[in-house]
Design goal:
Elements (H helix, E strand, L loop, with lengths): L6 E9 L4 H9 L8 E7 L2 E6 L2 E5 L11 E8 L3 H12 L15 H13 L5 H4 L1 H5 L2 H12 L8 E2 L2 E3 L5 H46 L4 H5 L6 H19 L27 H11 L7 H14 L12 H10 L5 H15 L4 H5 L7 H7 L6 H13 L4 H7 L4 E2 L6 E2 H14 L3 H16 L5 H18 L5 H17 L2 H9 L13 H19 L23 H4 L9
Parallel strand pairs: 4-7
Antiparallel strand pairs: 1-2, 1-5, 2-3, 3-4, 6-7, 8-9
Helix pairs in contact: 7-9, 10-11, 10-13, 13-16, 15-18, 16-18, 16-19, 18-19, 18-20, 19-21, 20-21, 20-22, 21-23, 22-23
């Protein structure tokens, strides 16, 4: 489970030599080495690291190494705790078992780097991961192997693939999980209580304002026969409502939260949910009839049936599943219908919360996004299915963050990253001549623009997305597509200072669309305000008279233009 604020992710950095490396390295190596680094990832109140006994979990800072040499904040994760647990269990039973541990080549730092990428898209500093290759020549590595082995923190026997720093009974582990679930449920409940209290207070204020307006403001309570609620009564009413809410909503220690109890995003994403997973799987099976599939590929097809049709968790998808997907997407001998069916199956899978576990298995070959990067060479049906898949990945915070990762990788050409590929697919869809592609492309544009991301790379792609949105606006699109483009521009203007300048230089002027959609007036006020501020800064704080892009000061009590006079600040009201 995840809260709306997310969970902090820290990197604990330890010096295995306790300062000896700094003292002795000039004599032994002929150069200064600050330390021999051991790292652990701290998230959800636990410290996770990898050693000769496998993956270990303990209370933060409770290993025999003592306090960490340095603590570095990696970021914030929105990955649900059960999904994270399943991911750690998968690592502990596959690539990070005790038998696979090698102190200098496959160690705690590689484990921390992989976990950090999964939970928040961050990386362990490169000088730590590559320390063995950089600081230790091969002869010295062998000599230091035995000396350093006993310094790595150890743990107790394994339970479910993950080692713990003390011998925990199964009952204790179950209780620990229940406590964690109850803690997260309590946080969600507190957030809902706060929201409910705010809504009740706003409702009472609106009622009181309306009552005073109707009754003259003097004797509204007496003439109307009602009782005016004071602050104490309002608070008491909020507490009573919260009590009812608690009885309905508090999940038990081992009960998953109801779907409507989960915190809603500020700007709900646009999703395409009218895709039948059962029908798409049957279409995929039919498209693959007569295709020579090996044993692993047939098993992967069966696993997809269990996941998509039978509703099993992502744990049923084996390590070879993405290799099977990659073969279907890249094999030119297969019919295009097979690729379309596979992508539409992935569209359905993207609506599930645990799909992020599948996506993170693609970090080695990048089969999905390598295929997506060539969207301009694909048939229209494949382009549409690909766009729908990427749009639906915004149904969950973890899968949408995967689309916006900034770590670079190579697919046989120039360096790429997930966010670069996502941007290319988005721009292609927005500017496509086919109406269906434009519909999906503008949905992806809106989802990307309204995603809360704060990276330098995202500031750079804002310009590309802005240019695509402006070009779409100039082509007289349908009302819904125009609204998505304007909403995206308003959000992009918050992410990057370059966006208002581009709107001013390139056009079209946002005020030209004032009456094209029922909800555009608020978006246009937001855009016009930023555009006006940009023009003032360019002209040396000289207000532009008679320019269509300036803020609007029309005084009116009408409900329809109230949004134009609202000071929207940094929020986008849709």
């Amino acid at each position: 489970m995840s809260t709306e604020e997310g969970e902090p992710v820290d990197l604990y950095i330890y010096d295995l030599t306790k300062g000896l490396a700094s003292l002795l390295s000039p004599t032994i190596l002929g150069r200064q080495v600050e330390g021999v680094w051991h790292t652990a990832v701290v998230v959800f109140g636990r410290e996770y690291f990898y050693g000769g006994g496998g993956v270990t979990s303990c209370a933060p800072g409770s290993t025999q190494l003592g306090a960490p040499y340095q603590v570095e904040r990696l970021g914030t994760t929105y990955v649900p705790f059960p999904v994270f647990q399943e991911y750690i269990q998968g690592l502990a039973t596959s690539s990070y078992t005790g038998q696979e541990y090698r102190l200098l080549e496959h160690n705690c730092n590689h484990f921390s780097d992989e976990v950090a990428q999964f939970v928040c898209g961050a990386r362990v500093p490169k000088h730590i991961v590559s320390q063995a290759e950089r600081d230790l020549p091969p002869p010295l590595r062998v000599a230091l192997q035995a000396a350093l082995d006993h310094l790595v923190p150890d743990g107790a026997p394994v339970y479910g693939g993950v080692r713990h720093s003390r011998r925990d009974s199964p009952d204790y582990l179950t209780l620990n999980d229940q406590i964690e679930e109850a803690r997260v449920a309590s946080q969600e409940l507190d957030a809902r209580r706060s929201t409910l209290a705010e809504k009740l207070a706003r409702k009472e204020r609106r009622k009181e304002k309306k009552r005073r307006k109707q009754m003259g403001g003097d004797q509204s309570g007496e003439e109307g026969g009602g009782v005016e609620l004071g602050p104490e009564d309002t608070e008491r009413g909020g507490e009573m409502s919260e009590a009812v809410e608690v009885l309905e909503a508090r999940p038990g220690p081992s009960t998953p939260p109801r779907e409507d109890d989960r915190p809603r995003p500020k700007d709900p994403p646009i999703l395409f949910k009218d895709i039948d997973g059962v029908a798409e799987y049957e279409a995929l099976v039919k498209a693959l009839e007569g295709v020579d599939l090996n044993e692993e590929e047939r098993r992967s097809l069966d696993e997809l049936q269990q996941y998509l049709v039978a509703g099993e968790g992502s744990w049923v998808l084996g390590d070879d599943f993405l290799a099977f997907v990659g073969r279907v997407l890249s094999d030119s001998c297969l019919a295009s219908a097979a690729r379309v069916s596979m992508l539409r199956c992935l569209c359905c899978a993207a609506l599930r919360e645990d799909v992020s576990l599948v996506l993170h298995q693609d970090r080695r070959h990048h089969a999905l996004l390598s295929y997506a990067y060539n969207i301009d060479r694909l048939p229209v049906d494949e382009q549409l299915a690909l766009l729908l898949f990427m749009v639906n990945l915004f149904s969950g915070p973890s899968s949408s963050e995967w689309l916006l990762y900034i770590s670079e990788w190579s697919a046989g050409g120039p360096p790429l990253s997930n966010i670069r590929v996502t941007t290319k697919v988005c721009v292609h869809g927005v500017l496509a001549p086919e109406p269906a592609l434009r519909d999906a492309g503008t949905a992806l544009l809106y989802n990307v623009a309204t995603k809360e991301v704060k990276t330098v790379v995202f500031d750079e792609v804002c310009v590309e997305l802005c240019m695509a949105a402006l070009q779409l606006c100039s082509s007289a699109p349908a009302e819904e597509l125009l609204w998505r483009a304007l909403a995206s521009l308003a959000r992009l203007a918050e992410h990057s200072h370059d966006v208002p300048q581009l709107v001013a230089l390139v056009g079209p002027d946002p005020s030209a669309f004032r009456y094209t959609h029922i909800n555009t007036h608020k978006l246009l006020h937001h855009l016009s305000t930023r555009l006006y501020m940009t023009r003032r800064s360019v002209q040396g704080d000289q207000p532009s008279s008679g320019r269509a892009g300036g803020p609007h000061h029309t005084e009116s009590s009408g409900e329809g233009v109230e949004g134009e006079r609202e000071e929207m600040g940094g929020d986008l009201y849709i």
